[in-house]
Design brief:
The protein is mainly β and 162 residues long. It has two helices and nine strands; from the N terminus they run ββαβββββαββ. The chain has a four-stranded antiparallel beta sheet, with no helix packed on it. Strands 2-4-5 form a three-stranded antiparallel beta sheet. The protein has a two-stranded antiparallel ribbon with strand order 1-3. The longest helix has 12 residues.
């Protein structure tokens, strides 16, 4: 699991302080907590904006709520939380190609391309190695109310508007 706050803004060109915490249902998250504590101590105590938690550190079936606090040189803070559940079967690794964040105007077309693959594992069942991927696109902020179209499951297109 990779937690990345690299696009955080508001530092005025100075170092941001990053602090990650986790709450885990069912217990067994000592290794996750240790990984986050090490990341928080990095960078002279300012913390690392990116933390990678190995799959082996996360207990199977655990529901973990990660919280990030980003603080600027004025002491102003912002928080973001994310809940993750470790599944008992391999989930696809999905990435959106291109820059993050994307900016466009209503008069420009926006095309997003997703790539997905099953994670590399030593013992994958034959039934999973040839599994077909199904892509489902959604806009979750509610800020965009225009139309979205797909020409292929991997591509999402927002047509230019007049």
């Amino acid at each position: 699991l990779k937690l990345d706050a690299g696009s955080t803004s508001g530092s005025g060109g100075r170092r941001m302080e990053f602090n990650y915490t986790v709450k885990c249902s069912g217990g067994g998250c000592a290794n996750v907590t240790k990984t986050l504590e090490e990341a928080n101590e990095a960078n002279g105590g300012y913390g690392s904006h990116t933390v990678t938690i190995p799959s082996s550190a996360m207990p199977l079936g655990a529901k973990m709520t990660f919280k990030l606090r980003a603080r600027n040189f004025l002491g102003e803070s912002s928080f973001k939380a994310l809940t993750v559940a470790k599944l008992g079967y391999p989930a696809p690794v999905v990435s959106i190609q291109g820059s993050n964040p994307r900016e466009t105007t209503y008069s420009d077309e926006l095309v997003l391309r997703a790539d997905a693959a099953l994670p590399e594992m030593a013992c994958v069942s034959d039934s999973l190695s040839d599994a077909k991927m199904t892509y489902v696109w959604s806009e979750v902020t509610g800020k965009y109310t225009g139309s979205l179209s797909t020409t292929s499951q991997q591509l999402l297109r927002r047509d230019a508007e007049d």
